[in-house]
Amino acid sequence: MLKIFKYISISLIVLATSIASAQIKFEAKVSKKRLGVNERLRVDFEMNKDGDNFNPPSFNNFMVVGGPNQSVSNSWINGKRSFSKTYSYFLAPKRQGTFTIQQATIEIDGETYKTTPVTVTVTKAVDKPKDGNNADYIASENIHLVAEISNTNPYLNEAITVVYKLYVSPNTGVSNWREIDNPKYSDFWSQNIDIKGLKVQNGTYKGEDYRYVVLRKTVLYPQKTGKLDIEPLSLDITVEVPTNRRDIFGSRLVNQVHKTVSAGNRTIKVKPLPETGKPAGFTGAVGEFDFKVITSKSELNASESLQAKVEVSGKGNLKLFELPKINMPSSLEVYEPEHSENVRTNLNGMHGSISDSYTVVPQFKGKYPIPSISFSYFDLKTESYKTVYSDEQVISVLEGPTNTSENQDITSTSGSKQRVVESNNQFAFVKTDPNLMPIKKPRFFRSLGFWSAMFLPLLAIPLAILYRRKKQERDADVFGNKIRKADKLAKKYLSEAKKALGQKEAFYVALEKALHNYLKAKLHIETSDFSKDKIQNLLLEKQVSQATIVEFVSILKNCELARYTPITQVEMEQDYEKAAKTISAIDKQIQ
């Protein structure tokens, strides 16, 4: 009896061991639970059985600088198979603090498994060992990203420039880079200056010889006073670090390491414009300007038209203030002005001209004075306000009716303009002799309508048969139907964006929402919380081509950047057409 109990116990232990060995495991592992803000963290999501639909956490408070890297291990030990699959990410902390890496999920054999959240503490920067043979240390000492600001204490609406330069020491190489964080310039009007090709130049950094390239040039006009932050530009760079080893031909070997560099957060202090001496008509113009009012004619006849142009030219924040309104006698009919801009932006800021062009139509004979109007601006050179005046002009209407209204003052320049026209022929357009003719009642029998009613139903039968055949052919055309369905789907999701064309912010908000709603409906997932890398991976899994994915992500980036940069109607229409084509292409390719 004792032996039987012993055998049963051993069997139960073996069975429990086999069940435990067959248990599915899915867990998160970190390289360290405490690290400096200048160090990197490796996170591994490891499973002992292959699964599908792996979803990583959002990695809040960290930047993903590498990954996901996938590795699979299969081994047989004593006839037993051991399997391991790992998704690895390399993270750089954004700031100090205690952060939790949330759960990742995966589906294995139809069941969803989740990892346990892991808590990591990020401390202040730690001193890394200065190892002359360590590639990471060499890269950190020889690669620098610098944001050079032209003026850290400007006035409100005064132009400043930010130039981003990447400095590389002569003995180090850079093979590739990508932007991780783009500055948003939320408190500035901003304009990027196009750079045609990256030119390597020689310079110095902290007194040492370096090579550098200018990556980006941006002109900023601060829109608030006080301390404003300029967000950093961050890059992930592939650095080629030479080693002491050589190949069989004697050439020095290099190690490639990934390095995250940042220009750092910069702060500028914006001065308010002085209140002393500020003119009553000042609308925010800052710079150096000329002002004039020009009329296309000084003499004309009644009912002819002339153009009166109010123009400001020079250098300054030309797009960020209002032009003064022209004053006209109330006897002149004045239409809403047409605004035009001829403005270019370089590293010195905006320069060119803006104007409002009014169409003026006189109704009566006489002389009409256009009084002088003023324009005020803040001059940065003298740090004082200046006011300039236009010349007074007179418009002579040589021929036309005479204004006989006693209450009509042709020299009045009040804002309300009501024209009274008195005439003895006010109702001349009414015809007094109608020349009416009796209408003969037509006969329906044997008329064209009679025969049409007889034979049209017979003609409709072959047309109905032909329509049915065409419909069957169309229904059988699977590829064609898929294309038509894709085009309809693109128009459906982009309808709100199309309504907002011409309204920059509303258009790009609607466009970005349409793109996310399309993915949400198509993939049955919530994409608004996903990164662009995650969206790329999802579309790749659905067998969408790389070119189409790149186009889709570029449109998402345009939606983010366009809210803070000036965009024309033509550019908005181009982005809309590009989005429609991309959605249609994804719908055709998605599996």
UniProtKB/TrEMBL annotation:
<dbReference type="InterPro" id="IPR025738">
    <property type="entry name" value="BatD"/>
</dbReference>
<keyword id="KW-0732">Signal</keyword>
<feature type="transmembrane region" description="Helical">
    <location>
        <begin position="448"/>
        <end position="467"/>
    </location>
</feature>
<keyword id="KW-0812">Transmembrane</keyword>
<protein>
    <submittedName>
        <fullName>BatD family protein</fullName>
    </submittedName>
</protein>
<keyword id="KW-0472">Membrane</keyword>
<feature type="signal peptide">
    <location>
        <begin position="1"/>
        <end position="22"/>
    </location>
</feature>
<dbReference type="Pfam" id="PF13584">
    <property type="entry name" value="BatD"/>
</dbReference>
<keyword id="KW-1133">Transmembrane helix</keyword>
